[in-house]
Amino acid sequence: MIGKVWLCGCLMVTLLQAQSSEEEPLRFWKDIKGREIIGELVASDGIRVTLRIEDNSKKVFPLNFFSAADRKFVSSWRDENPQAPWIDPQTMPAWPQKIGKGLVEVRQLASADDEFSYSYRSRHFEMLSDVELPLPLVRDMATIFETTRLVVHALPLGLAASPPVPLMQIRLQQKYPQLKYDPKLLRVQLYGNAQSFAQSGAPAGSGGFYHTLQNRTLLSLENLGIKGREGLSRIDFMKSDFVLKHEITHHLLHDWFPYLPVWFQEGFAEYMGAAPYSQGRYQFVTMDRDLHKYLNRWRFDEDPNRLPIMKMAELMTSSREDWSARLLRTTPILEYNSAAMLVHFFIHHDGKGDASHLAAYLNDIRLGISPAEAEKVHLLRGRSYEQIDEELQRVWKQQRITLERVGEVDPFE
Fold it and tell me: Distance of CA 311 to CAs 316, 387, 398, 407, Å?
């Protein structure tokens, strides 16, 4: 437990003299048991607080460690200092092992939408369906949505923050108010058959699709293994839970979409899809092993310990158009698996393995620095793309897994 932390008078004077007029002053903090801590607020993401204490060192505390008055102060500070760090990359919290609160509550409402006869609500999601669904099934889906939202915000990357909304998007929302993104009420549309799903504009044959322009997630119940009220199989549905996790992750990063490179957008969604999930809880304890299993989910006859991967020079410089064009001429496995391995590397194996460089990269993007410049400073750090290739090879080799770069072999022949 953390007891009272006192700063001697000389140290306090030194710290106060070192502060600029823009920095937060030292203040007394109280934990929920009334014990006092003296420190300067450095960063907060609404879940954790980073304080500069004692000999100018920094320490991360859970927000709920502090008194109600201090939590209110942090909330006000966050509103008044939108440019302030959400996560301090120099003092990274430990990557969570488990996140989740269990099953969520769902209620059925009268639908006001002509296209969808059935409407369901959880705390942050509105689910519209063109077929009636049993409430336990909707609850299972809503729990995935709500837990994924909780996880994306709780992982120490600062993704709960949002970059400025582009002017083009503001103008579009002014012209079509229904397209305004509301992070407190996210819309999911459920289609009872694959034909109606395809007619919505979603890719044929897919289980789900996040429609960026309309900021809503579209899901095909039939393609997820749900075929009518009498033929519902929860077990089959849960085998496809990665589709829901992937698409809802895109949904949650809507405001980041114009800024993030495609390798991160797709790779992070795949990272979330790979993380084990059960009954409203994710776990990240064995992500090396879990990602390896996930990467092989569509590879049936291939050697599971020989994985194809794109060259990082091609992947990390890809535009969304480049990505889409490649999907038309090769298997999607290559792109998605490569992006997943890269994001996993930057989270768990780059530098100290604490995701600090990735957090700094995302924070710079949020503050308006170009992704290319942020990548150069925080992700590459003087390394070439070929050196990132080599480091990825070493990481997986430690697990007796060989990465076969496209161009050296044809992994699908």
Answer: 9, 11, 20, 8
Q: pLDDT tens, 22-44?
A: 455 788 999 999 999 999 999 99
Distances (CA, A) of 62 to 38, 39, 79, 355: 16, 15, 19, 18
CA distance 391 to 11: 43
Other CB atoms within 10 A of residue 215 CB: 21
- Strand pairing category for 216-220 and 186-191: parallel
pLDDT band at 20 (very low <50, low <70, confident <90, very high): very low
- Domain CATH code at residue 69: 2.30.30.700
Q: Which DSSP category does 88 fall into?
A: -
Q: What is the pLDDT of residues 123-153, one digit of tens each?
A: 999 999 999 999 999 999 999 999 999 999 9
- Give the range of the structural domain holding residue 38, as residue numbers without chain letter: 9-80
Say if residue 71 is in the same domain as residue 102. Answer: no
Q: In 146-211, which ranges are E strands?
A: 186-191, 208-211
CB 225 within 8 A of CB 233: yes
Residue 301 in this model has a pLDDT that exceeds 70: yes
Question: Distance (Å, rounded) from C-alpha 176 to C-alpha 170?
Answer: 10
Residues 100 and 210 grouped into a single domain: yes
What CATH number does the domain containing 216 carry?
A: 3.40.30
Question: Given CA atoms 131, 132, 134, 136 in this order, what sign does their dihedral have?
Answer: positive
Residue 52, H or E segment: strand 48-53
Half-sphere exposure of 138 (CA within 13 A, CB side): 24
150 and 100 Cβ atoms separated by less than 8 Å? yes
Same structural domain for residues 102 and 45? no
Q: Do 168 and 27 share a domain, yes or no?
A: no
For CA atoms 134, 138, 139, 140, the dihedral sign is positive
110 and 252 share a domain? yes
3-state secondary structure of 336: helix
